[in-house]
Amino acid sequence: MSHKPNVLVLGTGNSCRSQLLHGYLSRLLAEQVAVYSAGIETHGVNPKAIAVMQQDGVDIAHHTSNLVNEYAHAFTARYFPSVKP
Questions:
Q1: In whole angstroms, what is the distance from residue 81 CA to residue 85 CA?
Q2: Is the separation of the CB atoms in 85 and 77 below 8 Å?
Q3: DSSP codes, 12-80
Q4: Model pTM?
């Protein structure tokens, strides 16, 4: 079994644009990559973003708004093993 590369989509509040891209990348590249999204702040997922994506057949209603430092350890350990977070 091969390990999928990680893709981290970064945004400011992880509420709209980063969530849209996270949804599309997950839909289009689910077999090739593991997709995550985060921001430097969390504003909650914008209900309008959820509605727009539903119109395109992509469900992001289960997404959460996350801080980038929630992923820092995992990405740092994998790509920069000598750096201690």
A1: 10
A2: yes
A3: SSSSSHHHHHHHHHHHHHTTT-EEEEEESS-----HHHHHHHHHTT---TT----BTHHHHHHHHHHH-
A4: 0.84
- CATH number reported for the structural domain that contains residue 58 in this entry: 3.40.50.2300
Question: Over the stretch 29-41, which tens digit does the pLDDT of each residue have?
Answer: 999 999 999 999 9
Domain enclosing residue 56, as ranges: 6-79
Contact criterion met (CB below 8 Å) for 20 and 45: no
Query: Tell me, what amino acid is at 20?
Result: L
Rounded Cα–Cα distance for residues 27 and 13 (Å): 22
Cβ count near 5 (within 10 Å): 10
